[in-house]
Every structure is written in C-alpha cells, then in structure tokens.
Design brief:
By secondary structure, the protein is an alpha+beta fold. Helix content is about 20%, strand content about 30%. Strand 8 and strand 9 form a beta hairpin.
C-alpha cells in the first residue's frame, strides 16, 4: 500500500509539472519502470484502467491495441505530458458495447438485462475478478459464464477445494442446489476449478451452484474436459497469449431433458475464446452436442466454428465490447492452425 501511495503522489506531482510547462492539457502518459525502461500511452486511447487484484492493473485500450499490463512493483513513477504531434483517437469505436459499466470487460457478451436476469460477478482481493455470469432466474441457470486468463491469475498455489455452495448474489428462491443434480447428471463447472487455483477463496467461488450446468458425466468428464484442457494447458501460456477471454455456457432455452427436480438439461454446450498476443486478436468457438456418450479420442478441430456461427446458434453477441472493426474481423472466420488444432 505504501508503494501505491508513493506512485499516486509522484503521478500528481508529474501531472502538475506537465501542466505548468504548457497551456495544453496532457495527452500522453509515460510509465517509468525500475529497470530504466519506459512505456508510453495516448490518454485518448485508454478506455479504462482495470485493477488486477493487488498486484497491478491493465491499461484497456479502445483502439484495438493489446492491453498493457503493469505490475505495481515495476513502477517508479508516472508522468503526464503534452505532445503536439499526437492526434487523439476517435472516441466512438463501438456502437454495440454493453451500457452497464460493470460489464465492459472484453470477455462479456451483450447482456440481455431482463427483469429476471442477474449479473453476478465474483472476485478476490488479491487476484481480481474470478468470473462473471448472467443468471436467468426463471431457468435457475447461467446464460453464460465469462472470465480472463493471464499471467496474473494463472498461478497454481492451491488444490481443488470442493467447497460447494450458494452464490450469494442470487436470491434464495432462484438458486439451485445439490438436489437439482440427480444421479444421472454431474455438477459441471463452466469456469473450471483448475483455472482458478491462485487461492482457496478464488477456487471456492468456482463451486457456486450458479457456475454449474447439469451434464452427463460422459460429456463432462471426456469431450468437454478435453476442450477445457485445450484452453487451460495449451492456450493459457505466455508464449501463446497475453490474455485469453473465455465464455462458456449451454443452450438453456433448448432443452434436451430435465433433472429429477425439473431443472433444464441443455441440448448443446459451447465455448467462445478470444486471444490477444502482441496487439493481435483472434477468436474461436467450440460447439458440441450434449450426449451421454464417451468421446475420448475426438479431434477437437471438428468442433471448432467461427464466432459468427456460434452467435447464430446461441443468439448471443460475443465480445461486443471490442471495437467494431476488430470484432467483425475476428468473428467471421476461424483458422484452426492458428490455434494449434
């Protein structure tokens, strides 16, 4: 905390100094790092500063560049200054982003935001947002669950907790419980336990029933598990991504059957993944029929589809917070070789 207060004080001093040197408002931000390097950012290009637990923040840009992740312990000071050669970025690069300020992260699909829909976001003090979801109270299931994967939240510090429990953000009368997942169906995670092992608190949040979907174990533990492993082990590496933005869910409005308590068992499951590396974006979807069949040796390439196609199948608008030109480009096609499939 002392370090952050020093950074804030130096920032204020630097800003006042910059304003004293010119009549123009500052248009540039410069980070000075402890190793002598610097990083510069156009102020007009910053959409927001997104805190990552207590370890740093992401500079989230509105111009399609990569997010710039900064750790607090790297920063010596921050300076604001005016550069007469810098032109401001256009201010409205997205006509369809979410209007709810709590849902502006790149992983969030377009909210339905109906009277019986709840945006439930879980986080921890040290590692930031664990995941967010939009919950349909009538169905008592999540429309989707969305989360990020990057170096700051991918540590393996603890083991699986199995702390099954209620989502405190969901009113009691709309919650599911272990009784809803009868012997024929497993409690299938959407945000997996294995993707949130930084702390016990973080891992425990993945065991909220709002993060569960009734699945045949032959699907949950085989094909779906293989898809999750592709994300967790193959794509969630520093060499492959700066950040992964992941959305998972099922067709809760297309019912295959029901559990013993009448809870919908979806006919299809899906994933939507957006990857950014060095300012370059790409996206891919997975779509799978929910069958009580073990498919252990399936080539995942056959389940890969474009985000445009996935949107047509689900009725969801994925990655709506991206600038429109980038969203249109990454969603129209999928090149499986880019994803090592």
């Amino acid at each position: 905390m002392k370090k952050q207060l020093i950074i804030l004080l130096l920032t204020i001093i630097s800003a006042n100094y910059a304003l004293a040197q010119t009549d123009q408002a500052p248009n540039m931000l410069r980070y000075y790092f402890s190793n002598g390097q610097t990083a510069e950012v156009k102020i007009s290009s910053i959409d927001r500063l997104q805190k990552v637990g207590n370890i740093g923040w992401n500079n989230v840009f509105n111009n399609g560049d990569s997010n710039l992740s900064i750790l607090f312990n790297r920063i010596d000071s921050i300076a604001f200054y005016y550069d007469p050669d810098i032109q401001p970025d256009p201010v409205d690069l997205n006509q369809n982003r979410n209007t709810n300020p709590r849902a502006l992260l790149l992983e969030y699909p377009r909210l339905r935001a109906g009277n019986k829909d709840i945006l439930s976001i879980h986080s921890t003090k040290d590692y930031g947002i664990t995941y967010g979801l939009e919950y349909d109270c009538d169905k008592r299931l999540a429309r989707w669950v969305a989360y990020e994967m990057h170096d700051g939240n991918s540590k393996k510090n603890v083991s699986r907790t199995n702390n099954w429990g209620d989502d405190p953000n969901i009113p009691y009368q709309y919650r599911t419980s272990s009784d809803d997942f009868t012997s024929n169906f497993s409690r299938g995670h959407l945000c997996p336990s294995s993707d949130r092992l930084c702390s016990r608190e973080q891992n425990s949040q993945t065991f909220y029933y709002s993060n569960m979907m009734p699945q045949y174990q032959n699907h949950n533990g085989v094909l779906w598990a293989n898809m999750e492993q592709q994300v967790t082990s193959k794509w969630n590496t520093s060499s492959f991504r700066d950040t992964l933005y992941v959305v998972k869910g099922a067709t809760i409005y297309d019912q295959l059957t029901t559990t013993g308590t009448g809870l919908t068992v979806p006919r299809y499951f899906y994933m939507a993944v957006l990857c950014v590396k060095n300012g370059k974006y790409k996206a891919l979807g997975f779509w799978t029929l929910h069958e009580n069949v073990s498919r252990s040796k399936e080539d995942l390439k056959k389940y890969a589809i474009s985000i445009d196609e996935l949107e047509a199948k689900t009725g969801l608008d994925f990655f709506c917070n991206l600038p429109d030109d980038i969203e249109e480009e990454v969603e129209k096609a999928v090149k499986t070789s880019d994803w090592n499939l």
